[in-house]
């Protein structure tokens, strides 16, 4: 067994040992919370700082004077103003907040990009991805670790083609992001649903029935009594998941389950920031209007934008 295959095998064994049969697997994709702090501007603007910068970045913003905060905030405003018209719209502010909250996705893409853009031309072809990911498997079509790598590769190829908007089998960084994180893109949601159904639909009838639904998140493992959360999930399936009351979930019902239409917290926060900062009430913010309210956006002695600016430049 090749050393890479052996390490994969060991890691999977460790997961199996550490996993408990009563643990619940969550397949639902939710947008992350903007902050774990209370949104009460009468007490503090900490929630707004987390939302605007991301919680991890906001924690590092403790050493700046008000003058430094204003200067760096002005630089960030220039990044937010995508069309460079000197005005920040609610939509541009919303997009920035979403970027700040999902920075980890772009960091993940950047890490993987370096390992897959083999010819360093700023693009990743399917052949590059296949060779970097499955090259050693292709040399051994019958590995002895029990994994069906050929099936995994075919599934990856299908997703790659879905992410590839122009059909040339060469991914830009945006298309590669859609490939790695399809749940973040509207045009990729069908593939997320399809892959989920293939994972859970054990009898291959194109639907997810109650036992398949429960079996995906819980294994009896010899236990006679189910935990309470499993009983609750059975009730959830009957009362809410199975909208047609036919004992199974089709593609639309599965999509409603794993990709719910969440409240758009980023848009709500963007509207709040515009409302609080828009002095002339034209629905848009100038750099001056934002900097005047720097304490709302970033504060002072609680702000360090250096890393945020550097990371945004990378993308």
From TrEMBL:
<keyword id="KW-0703">Sarcoplasmic reticulum</keyword>
<keyword id="KW-0677">Repeat</keyword>
<feature type="domain" description="EF-hand">
    <location>
        <begin position="68"/>
        <end position="103"/>
    </location>
</feature>
<keyword id="KW-0106">Calcium</keyword>
<dbReference type="GO" id="GO:0042470">
    <property type="term" value="C:melanosome"/>
</dbReference>
<keyword id="KW-0732">Signal</keyword>
<dbReference type="InterPro" id="IPR002048">
    <property type="entry name" value="EF_hand_dom"/>
</dbReference>
<keyword id="KW-0472">Membrane</keyword>
<comment type="similarity">
    <text>Belongs to the CREC family.</text>
</comment>
<dbReference type="Pfam" id="PF13202">
    <property type="entry name" value="EF-hand_5"/>
</dbReference>
<dbReference type="InterPro" id="IPR011992">
    <property type="entry name" value="EF-hand-dom_pair"/>
</dbReference>
<keyword id="KW-0256">Endoplasmic reticulum</keyword>
<dbReference type="GO" id="GO:0005509">
    <property type="term" value="F:calcium ion binding"/>
</dbReference>
<feature type="domain" description="EF-hand">
    <location>
        <begin position="104"/>
        <end position="139"/>
    </location>
</feature>
<protein>
    <submittedName>
        <fullName>Calumenin</fullName>
    </submittedName>
</protein>
<dbReference type="GO" id="GO:0005576">
    <property type="term" value="C:extracellular region"/>
</dbReference>
<feature type="domain" description="EF-hand">
    <location>
        <begin position="151"/>
        <end position="186"/>
    </location>
</feature>
<dbReference type="GO" id="GO:0005794">
    <property type="term" value="C:Golgi apparatus"/>
</dbReference>
<dbReference type="InterPro" id="IPR018247">
    <property type="entry name" value="EF_Hand_1_Ca_BS"/>
</dbReference>
<keyword id="KW-0325">Glycoprotein</keyword>
<dbReference type="Pfam" id="PF13833">
    <property type="entry name" value="EF-hand_8"/>
</dbReference>
<dbReference type="GO" id="GO:0033018">
    <property type="term" value="C:sarcoplasmic reticulum lumen"/>
</dbReference>
<feature type="signal peptide">
    <location>
        <begin position="1"/>
        <end position="19"/>
    </location>
</feature>
<dbReference type="GO" id="GO:0005789">
    <property type="term" value="C:endoplasmic reticulum membrane"/>
</dbReference>
<keyword id="KW-0964">Secreted</keyword>
<feature type="domain" description="EF-hand">
    <location>
        <begin position="265"/>
        <end position="300"/>
    </location>
</feature>
<keyword id="KW-0479">Metal-binding</keyword>
<keyword id="KW-0333">Golgi apparatus</keyword>
<feature type="domain" description="EF-hand">
    <location>
        <begin position="188"/>
        <end position="223"/>
    </location>
</feature>
